[in-house]
Design brief:
The protein has 144 residues and is mostly helical. The chain has helices spanning 15-34, 40-51, 57-64, 68-80, 102-110, 114-122, 126-143, and strands spanning 55-56, 84-88, 96-100. It has seven helices and three strands. It has a three-stranded antiparallel sheet with strand order 1-3-2.
Length: 144
């Protein structure tokens, strides 16, 4: 049997190494975030809000590349943990704005060590990591 469908061989796929790398990196984050009772996705939301507090659910979803059906329950759990508040927008009551609480802001300092801890665990060349990040950002832009 000839191998006409080389594009159907797993090793020839771009999507699999991206998927595997994402899962493995996320797995490295788990024990670091566990002590703060956070998931990786919640950490992403916190980073977005630390940079720009008071965004709408839609704006957070756009930055995190998450649909509202995934993001809304996540935000509700974060609200229950007193990390953020969900506030109806004054100019459009259909829109919900998200603001960090004092507890959410305090986590910024506590979690500041996470990136360095992750880098020290991987022993991956910093310059290669920067190049890979740039390439992935270009790919994401292309795929949007």
């Amino acid at each position: 049997m000839t191998q006409k469908a080389d594009h159907q061989i797993l090793e020839n796929q771009l999507c699999f190494p991206l998927y595997a790398a994402s899962r493995l990196v996320t797995r490295l984050y788990q024990p670091l975030l566990e002590q703060y009772k956070l998931t990786y996705t919640q950490y992403i939301v916190l980073m977005i809000l630390w940079q720009n507090d008071g965004l709408s659910v839609k704006q957070i979803g756009k930055k995190a590349l998450l649909n509202s059906n995934t993001l809304t329950p996540l935000l509700k759990r974060m609200q229950q943990a007193q990390l953020l508040e969900r506030i109806k927008n004054e100019s459009d009551e259909r829109q919900i704005d998200i603001k960090l609480t004092a507890k959410g802001w305090q986590l910024k300092q506590g979690l500041a060590c996470i990136p360095q801890q992750l880098i020290s665990q991987t022993d991956y060349d910093t310059e290669k990591a920067k190049q890979l990040k740039t390439l992935l950002e270009q790919l994401i832009t292309q795929l949007k």
